[in-house]
Amino acid sequence: MNPDFSRNHFELLGLPARYALDARELERRYRELQTQVHPDKFASGSEAERRVAMQWATRANEAYRTLRDPVSRARYVLSLKGFDTGEESNTSMPPDFLMQQMEWRESVGAARDSGDAAALDKLRIDLAASRAEMLGMLARALDGDANYDAGCSLVRKLRFLEKLEAEIDDALELLHERS
Amino acid sequence: MALLQISEPGESPDPHQRKLAVGIDLGTTHSLVATVRSSSAEVLADEQGRPLLPSIVRYHADGAIEVGYDARAAQAEDPGNTVVSVKRFMGRGVADVARYGALPYRFVDAPGMLAIETAAGTRSPVQVSADILKALRDRAERALGGELFGAVITVPAYFDDSQRQATKDAGRLAGLNVLRLLNEPTAAAIAYGLDHASEGTFAVFDLGGGTFDISILRLTRGVFEVLSTSGDSALGGDDFDQAIAVHWRVGHGLADGAVRDTRRLLAAARAVKEQLTDREEASVEVTLSYGQKLRLHLSRAEFEQLTAPLVQKTLGPTRKALRDAKLEATDIDGVVLVGGATRMPHLQRAVENYFRRAPLKDLDPDQVVALGAAIQANVLAGNRAGDDWLLLDVIPLSLGLETMGGLVERVVPRNSTIPVARAQEFTTFKDGQTAMAIHVVQGERELVSDCRSLARFELRGIPPMVAGAARIQVTFQVDADGLLSVSAREKTTGIESAIVVKPSYGLTDDEVARMLQEGFSHATEDRDARALAEQRVEAEALLASVAAALEKDADLLPRDERSSLDASMQALAAARAGTDHRAIRAAIDSLNRASERFAGRRMDRAISGALAGRRVDEVSK
Q1: Where are the alpha helices (DSSP H) in chain A?
Q2: pLDDT tens-digit profile of B220-244?
Q3: Considering only A50-59, B87-96, B453-462, B603-612, which range has the smallest mean pLDDT?
Q4: B positions 531-560 inside 8 Å of A (CB)
Q5: Which of B564, B573, B570, B574 has the alpha carbon at shortest distance from B594?
Q6: Are B476 and B422 in contact (CB under 8 A)?
Q7: Which residues on B lie below 8 Å from A40 (Cβ)?
Q8: Does chain B have fewer CB atoms within 10 Å around its N or its C terminus?
Q9: Distance (Å, rounded) from C-alpha A72 to C-alpha A162?
Q10: What pLDDT does residue B496 have?
Q11: How far is A53 from chain B (nearest CA, A)?
């Protein structure tokens, strides 16, 4: 038998279903829930109890993982509203963002090729600033204006930033290994 | 809080009701068993007062088995039948162990995992490990004066699924109730966490004989959370001995000598390395075959220079673990040292330089893992009532599936908190395709050939459709021990063909039963008596747990379910009074099935209760 999985992630953790979220509160509630359901609490329990516990603990981990990261949380809020962010299918971006994208990519490539760790670090800081700005816009789009199309577009942009950040980290890692 | 706990919260169980639980560090070079007595963890020594058990097993032609120091003494005289460092072979095939160079064993490529031809017959690494575990179980039962309720066994954080599965199988084969597999660095942090009531983010730096593990953990309010793990499974204290031996060999113009000379040089190197921990210089005399005597010297400065690259090698995985945890070295509040090799002063210096703080080393680095495992075993056995201890662990390596072109599609990324389930959809490649081969792999590389193959199975009975129309959902479920099960089903037609596989290195229950049988036929133990005792203990635990559940939540049961549950309980109580262990087993299984829905509803209530409780909190804020 499967536990009742009809609650969404917010309901499971007893949080209001919106984008803005207190990270510490999320963590506190996640741990409270895990304290109730984790299989270790049932190590001397029956097989049935242990199986149900594993399913619930799995569910709690999934909810926490989804809500902890702001981009995945936004994606999830949008899916609850019936919007698909279409990150795989929809690759169209506004021209100014495309220009910015190309600039960033060129800078990463150049810094990597010349082994310039300082330039990579600076790019990371620039990206973090852009990301923070977009997350602010995301909060307004989702919780304020209920402009879910804008929300989807922001999630797609943020997804791109994440990929670029990973590329920078990989390049930095490579430089560390060489040194 | 815990509505589902068995013992009453806040009440310490009666001392003679305490369940005997141990923690076992099943190490490459040596193993230990520890327990919690009068609220502190201690390692249980053997009758000669020695805490360590060398992880060495010797097999005799008459079926006799020697484990530990006796086996180690015979190592040079009977290398082929004396299995050393069996941990390296767990869940591995013959091809995997080629990198260890010339080993004195006759390997057999048995299905799933290699085996070793010994005087007593073919032995799998699982059986050899079980013999070590059995020696530790006997030691613990003698020291504690009773049958063990259960054990926590530690594994390197970097162990993949097949190695974990093999370790758990070895535990079962040794007649242990394995409460949990625990990552070694996590166990070390538990040992420190309790004794020092520490909070914050910790790095556990574990350099053992043959492996290096680094884990980043966060400790808060009784919660141990593993943020990331990394390591090098081919780096350890032995490499430092090797470096010294090579240095001497070159310096004294020795040719690559006999295996026996290599061993002597390595033993001398180890002795010198250990002396250099608190001395500036050390020397040792070695007699090689052909009677050649050598006086070998080494200064600490030379040693540090020789092995600086090895020390440096630990920093790569350390950086990677920090990066995965999204932390900088300066974010770490404490560094725990584990493993005998961390006694080396230059290693401690390197760790201190990197993290900019002195590492913790109050506990014996050889014992710290076993001590932590004992503490966790004590918690899992329910001996610590009324606390909300919780350990959240992660999966160390990504799990994925083979897709077209031999590429890996990652399904569960590494460092996901477990238990975790993830599903991925795939589709057919050809028109009318009715079967699909599913290949499960573990590792971080892009190519299937660079990852470890865990299991292969086929999903059959897919209704014929045009290519790309079928929707095959493959689900990975990883439990709290880090063990995987995989299922697949076709979604479009509503036809559910699901298969649950065990990784190919795991043993089936039948295999374990057969091996247990074989084991017992060599031993003097009365198999049926033991089985009966075990089933009775399990029956009693189950009856107590269901009774406690009924006392709290009987109102969740419709009348018909209640009466069938009562009947199952009575049947089990009756079977328990008898002497047929198979009948008890059957009654246990039947009560488990009868209580399944009840368990689900109780969990639901527990969660709703927690939610309701929160709302009250919010109002009062």
Answers
A1: 9-12, 23-37, 47-68, 70-80, 95-114, 117-139, 148-178
A2: 765 677 788 888 878 989 899 999 9
A3: B603-612
A4: 541-542, 545-546, 549
A5: B564
A6: yes
A7: 180, 379-380, 390-391, 480
A8: C
A9: 11
A10: 59
A11: 8
Give CA–CA dist B597/B125, Å, rounded.
39
CA-angle at A102, arms to A96 and A107, nearest 5°: 130
For the CA atoms of B414, B417, B423, B424, the dihedral, rounded to the nearest 10 degrees, stands at: -20
Of B578, B571, B455, B435, which Cα lies nearest the Cα of B508?
B455
Taking CA A25 as the corner, what is the angle to CA B481 and CA B182, rounded to the nearest 5 degrees? 15
Rounded Cα distance, B171 and B506, in Å? 13
Contact B390/A35, CB-based, under 8 Å?
yes
Mean pLDDT, residues B561-570: 90
Residue B123 one-letter amino acid: R
- Cis? peptide before A3, omega within 30° of 0: no
Test B603 with A3 for CB contact under 8 angstroms.
yes
User: Which chain A residues contact residue B568 at CB under 8 A?
Assistant: none
Contact B603 A53 (CB under 8 A): yes
A&B contacts, CB < 8 Å: 130
In angstroms and rounded to an integer, the radius of gyration of the C-alpha atoms of chain B is: 26
Report how far residue B161's alpha carbon sits from residue B209's, in angstroms, rounded to the nearest whole number. 22
Catalytic annotation, pick one of B206, B366, B393, B402 = B206
Name the percent of chain B lying above pLDDT 70.
Answer: 86
Q: Mark whether B184 is an active-site residue.
A: yes
Single pTM value for the model: 0.76
pLDDT score at B617:
39
8 Å CB contact between B20 and B35? yes
Q: Does residue B101 have a pLDDT over 70?
A: yes
* Closest by Cα among B303, B322, B33, B43 to B204: B322
Amino acid identity, position A15: L
HSE, side-chain direction, 13 A CA sphere, residue B110: 19
